[in-house]
Please model this.
Amino acid sequence: MTIYRAAELFTLQTVPAVEGKPAWMNLRARRRPQWLGEPPALTGPGIYGMFLDDRLAYVGIYAGHAQRPFGGSVLDRWHKHVVYQTLRAPEVAFAASQLSRILNELDGPAIAEIGACPEDEPLIGRHGGSCTFEKARFAVRHWDVFGPGNEAGMLDRLSFVYHRLDPSWADEVPAGGECDASCPSGWVKRNWLHEPERLLIAALQPPCNTRTHGRPCDIGPDELLSRIAAIVNAPSPAPILSNPQAAENSLMTHDDEENPGEAAFRAKLGDVAEAMLDELHARCLSAIQIGFTNIPDLRIYMGRRVLVTLSPRTKGGLPCETYAPVSVCRAFGFDASPKHGQMTARFTSCRINTTLATCSPSPGRRPRRSPPSAIRAELRHHPVMPPA
Model:
């Protein structure tokens, strides 16, 4: 059995907080160099547990990339958990009903600061929340571990274990009419992962999972892996679907910090997605927010207005469709050119100036970042035009 200590997998990076959120929502977890890419033991679909001081806090599943379920790394999930489930990520947001429950039922210094924030965006998630009541409850009960000033030691307290599905099962994922060809990973979730996840959550009550009672869970890494193996390790990869309705209504939908659109967007861009999204998040610090759709595409919003839409192509490239002026797109860091010489139009191509191999206009050169104030100024001088 391998226990993966968060401090061995990640480092914490302090980033600017989002205006309108507590200043301590300012951490991102970065993979250490030796864990970049797809480490074999952590590649492909499986079931995992997250632990605080070796006591189970959360059970989750990973189903690889949308088109390649036996690829990708579960580290793509874990690096979010260590800052989302501790309330420390700038992207933490809540569904309105969840935020109301958090403020009414929880207390402590973290809750007081959340309650002092504006009662609308950006704390209210545009497409639902990345943080549930249960995650907030877990974080504030352990604020002595996760709160500001404890960054040097919090990763030492967190750990993970992973039960990876046998790679030979990849040949059993059906094609054609038997499987949703647009998302093979969805078939893997529905048939092999959702039901074990449901059973484990119901039996073990990890305090971070949705609709759990919140009491401490004394299950350790060894016992969790044994329980997973007892459910999953069948002689052949027959669907583990004893309760189809329960699987269809899996708790995972409510606990996912990365929506399907974001997962598909990242899968199409591959390893370079992280660098691009990091740069965009660094630029979009205030009322400007980033969202994803299931197309998949990435959309940059100011309030409810869509400023920029990016749609990755399977064969590479990241064309941009926008009614924002050239100057606004350049303030975001894009190498934008106007269509037909107009200053407010759709752009036929748009590349972000990052370390992306296919998108960097000059290798090794990192451009000056435009602060949100500069972007807002550009929007005041060149308001976004509505579609004709």
Observations:
- The chain is about 35% helix and 15% strand.
- Residues 244-255, 341-372, 382-388 have pLDDT under 50 and may be disordered.
- Residues 10 and 91 are 18 Å apart (CA to CA).
- The first helix runs from residue 6 to 9.
